[in-house]
Amino acid sequence: MLDAATRARDFPALAGIVYLNTAAEGIPPPAVGEGLSQYFRDKQLGMDGRLRHAAVHAEARRLAAALVGLEADDVAICSCSSEAFNLASLALGLREGDEVVVTDLDFPASVTPFLQDGCPAAVKVWRSRAGSLVTEDLVALLSPRTRLVSLPLVSFYNGFRAAVPAVAEVVHRHSPALLAVDITQGLGRIPLDRDSGALAGADLIVSSTHKWLLGPHGGGIVGVPPKRRDAWTVPAGGWFNIHDAFGADRFERAESLPGAASFAVGMPNYPALYAIHGALEYLSGVGVAAIDRRAAPLVSECLSGLRALGVDLLSPTDPARLAGILAFRHPRADALHRFLHDRQIHVMHHAGRLRVAFHGYNTEADVATFLREFASALATV
Questions:
Q1: Which pLDDT does position 282 carry in this prediction?
Q2: Where are the domains of the chain?
């Protein structure tokens, strides 16, 4: 990552291929596999291994918190982002007459909990214009009944990067709603720590771990700012999330821990936590700001190349509104995807949409190869 020597050392699987699909699956560094192996060794200690599990868990939370500008006590790690949003829905205690605002750039995980028959709230959709979300359009959707606004920091669909502080100001000025931000497509790729201010005003932060974070499946990072602990206390059964779960009155009452801790509802997924810890430690050592400096020019270069090829861009054309993803439509997308894959160029294809994604392990050569072969594909298929 960042130079040829470390790329070859840390990502040997990338030799001979152009991998532009991190928005779907990140390529893990060796530290992730080493974490899984260490878990197995610690697990073999039986109950004595629990102390080591707890130490890795605590350190993973500390590293995750630093990446999102919170303290370790403000962060929990559950099983995935879908679980986190379902628990968030439970925490809200939605009733008839309540309203939830989602966007047409959201991933299903942050939308579908509120579309289930068991959810009594009405859902409104904040629709994008020319690939971007316009805050003026949000104002008309907000009311005194709005309980939640769900926002992707970076859209999985087209790479649009939202200005969270600006959205938060509108949400909190025009409604009593809380703002939940899915940072899955940004965490590990763009700076989100306290100094960046990128998440200022967010009331809930959620991310999966297997994409830009370069970790495994089985993890969902949840961040709750201290001032919102009471608002996001999940009334779920379990034991890890319960205050004094084995107390004398345990058959009479169950009291959830406040805030992020209430999202960790059962035995932690320690195998995933060891691997997540390895990924977090690796990215923290490289530095997310350095990754952004390395990858941002690749996004701009590819954007210029795609515009020159005349594709139907779904992404905003302003690089400042992008992070690591570019997306476009084509009527022959399936054939184009096969052409590229046959040449060991890995991009995402779904329903006529092609998507490319650039992380710190990508290079100028990756961009040049992709654009050259994509131009050949356009002329061939």
A1: 98
A2: 4-20+288-380, 32-285
User: Is the torsion defined by CA of 210, 216, 219, 224 positive or negative?
Assistant: negative
CA distances from 209 to 77, 215, 230, 329 (A): 10, 5, 26, 28
pLDDT at 108: 96
Give me the CATH code for the 32-285 domain, please. 3.40.640.10
Indicate the pTM of the whole model. Answer: 0.95
Tokens of 307: 């515009």
Domain 4-20+288-380 in this protein, CATH class = alpha beta
What integer pLDDT is reported at residue 2 of this predicted model?
Answer: 87
- If the chain, 381 residues long, is cut into consecutive pieces of 10 residues, what is the mean pLDDT of each piece? 93 96 98 98 97 98 97 97 97 97 97 96 97 96 98 98 98 98 98 95 98 97 96 94 94 95 95 98 97 97 96 94 96 96 97 97 98 97 88
The pLDDT, as a whole number, for residue 254 is: 94
